[in-house]
Design goal:
The complex is a heterodimer of chains A (about 140) and B (about 400). By secondary structure, chain A is of the alpha+beta class. Chain A is built from 5 helices and 3 strands. The radius of gyration of chain B is 22 Å and the shape is globular. The mean pLDDT of chain B is about 95. The chains are: A alpha+beta (about 140), B alpha/beta (about 400).
């Protein structure tokens, strides 16, 4: 199987074309912009946090299949999690795409992005939404 | 006789990467052995600081550095004392925006640019405008991707103090009629600044015939090393230009209170310059002049025409930029709804290197109505086979992503 076939599978292409949780969130607890200056990909991440849990997560923006599918699956995964749990998922996702570690089962469908680790030029695409998440959680932490 | 296969053999990177189809020279070109050898030779035989040593080695280093300046003068049809070595075109344009702009721009003045400018010929003017109260105006583009000349006439006024224009678009490949536009702008009393980063590597440039006051280029896009570029300035304009950076080498006499400055070009080369890089750039200019820039341009044009013809075979491929003789070897494109970044990964799997993104030209992409494009660009070492490989890789990518286009 080529790198291309390994990466661009049904899961990723479906999320990229019909992203889940796409569109702004009204009255978010926190809103963070992410930007990949080398390719112009953009994301706005909106979180509603209630009692230390992510009650709602949505995003807007534009980008490649990797950045869009990553944001789509991430917002699915973090809903209902505590901020600490979301940060732990962030760590596990980075370990997978940056350190090329085997996907942690907790990442669910996001394991489909494991192939990104072999494409250094695309790591920034995969982590765009996750970096925004880390920043958003930091802002909520500071505010509380 | 220009033989790109023979040229290719002068570039070790292709022997080191068999099968590589390098189509990103508009971002940075590869380097011939003549350039890397000139730099190594300098470091191994002749290195010392320039313009100061009272010993043979320093004299040789100075001679090598000044020889490089002379070569750049010949390359641009200019005089050696009009050639200022800088890091790249970005630094050259900043030098003009700061040294000339801050001294001459006032509230209500206008800086006229175009919508196809690289950020390097836009952001420095925004910085100068923010400090002086000047305003930025931009010549819009036609649907084909040329400058709207009627709009240019309408925008040009007595308030226009600077006309800053690229000679060739790094996205559309459009070659602008700089000499005519510059003549009109100078008639209104505007300073004419030409961004030659994309044009100078590809077509014969005689700066005096461009009616320009300044011309900027980057060495690394014209077979030279990174870290060396040129700002050409018309002698009369350079003579009156205040310094940009202060320090050693650019002075005549220094007291604690004040200094007098050296004449150009030394006035604009504060500190120890990138000597080896300047020598490498001189060697690159020499290499190009031996090929002859007329041949380089003819090769560029022939590859472009062949590529435009062959790319028409790829369904759903959208091409940007004009058709005609006023177009260099740069092709921006998008395939269906596929994001260019995903497309580039597919092309890379086939050994075809293209760039994706906004290519440091966000206002242009906004005008095109897309966030990003993929871009293939040609140079002396590219062959029709490279074009064939690009077309094959595009057809394969289209097949692979067929359900999602």
């Amino acid at each position: 199987m080529s790198l291309l076939e390994e990466l661009y599978r049904e899961t990723i292409m479906q999320h990229a074309q019909r992203p889940h949780n796409f569109g702004p969130l009204e009255a978010p607890t926190v809103r963070v912009g992410g930007h990949n200056p080398s390719c112009g990909d953009q994301i706005e991440l909106y979180l509603k946090v209630e009692d230390g849990r992510i009650a709602e997560a949505r995003f807007t923006g534009h980008g490649c299949a990797i950045s869009q599918s990553s944001a789509s699956m991430m917002t699915d995964l973090i809903r209902g999690r505590t901020l600490a749990e979301a940060l732990e998922l962030h760590r596990k996702f980075k370990a997978m795409v940056v350190e090329a570690e085997l996907p942690d089962p907790a990442l669910g469908d996001l394991a489909a992005l494991a192939g990104v680790a072999k494409l250094p030029a695309r790591v920034k695409c995969a982590t765009l939404a996750w970096n925004a998440l880390e920043q958003a959680i930091g802002q909520v932490g500071e505010a509380s | 006789m220009f033989d790109p296969e023979a040229v290719k053999r002068d570039f070790p990177v292709f022997a080191a990467n068999p099968g590589l189809v390098f189509l990103d020279s508009a971002a940075s070109s590869q380097k011939p052995r003549a350039v890397t050898r000139a730099m190594t030779r300098y470091y191994e035989h002749d290195h010392a600081n320039v313009h100061r040593g009272a010993y043979g080695l320093s004299v040789r280093a100075t001679e090598a550095y000044e020889t490089a300046r002379g070569r750049m003068a010949r390359f641009l049809g200019a005089e050696a004392d009009e050639i200022v070595f800088v890091r790249n075109a970005t630094e050259a344009l900043n030098l003009v925006a700061y040294a000339w702009g801050l001294a001459h721009l006032n509230e209500g003045d206008e800086v006229l640019v175009s919508e196809m400018e690289h950020h390097a010929n836009l952001v420095p003017w925004q910085l100068a405008a923010a400090r002086t109260g000047a305003r930025i105006k931009a010549v819009p583009l036609t649907a084909e991707g040329r400058l709207d000349l009627d709009a240019f006439e309408a925008l040009l006024s007595e308030r226009t103090r600077v006309f800053a224009i690229t000679q060739m678009s790094n996205v559309l490949g459009t070659v602008n009629p700089v000499a005519e536009l510059a003549a009109a702008a100078r008639e209104r009393g505007a300073l004419v600044v030409v961004d030659g980063a994309q044009a100078a590597p590809h077509l014969p440039v005689r700066v005096r015939e461009l009616n320009a006051d300044f011309y900027a280029l980057s060495g690394h896009k014209m077979l030279g090393p990174t870290g060396a570029g040129v700002l050409w300035g018309r002698r009369e304009v350079l003579a009156d230009l205040p310094p940009f950076l202060g320090g050693g080498s650019m002075i005549e006499e220094v007291t604690i209170e004040r200094s007098s400055y050296a004449p150009p070009p030394q006035r604009f080369e504060a500190g120890t310059p990138a000597i080896a890089e300047a020598i490498g750039l001189g060697a690159a200019a020499d290499y190009l002049m031996r090929l002859s820039m007329e041949n380089v341009w003819a090769h560029d044009r022939a590859l472009l025409e062949y590529a435009l013809e062959r790319l028409a075979e790829v369904p759903e491929l959208r091409l940007y930029g004009p058709h005609g003789a006023d177009r260099g070897g740069v092709i921006a494109f998008n395939l269906g709804r596929l994001h260019p970044h995903d497309l580039a990964t597919a092309l890379d799997e086939r050994g075809v290197a293209v760039r994706t993104g906004h290519h440091c030209a966000q206002p242009l992409h906004r005008r095109l109505g897309v966030a990003a494009t993929a871009r293939a660009s040609f140079y002396v070492y590219n062959t029709p086979t490279d074009v064939d490989r690009l077309v094959e890789a595009l057809l394969e990518a289209r097949e692979f992503f067929s359900g999602w286009l």
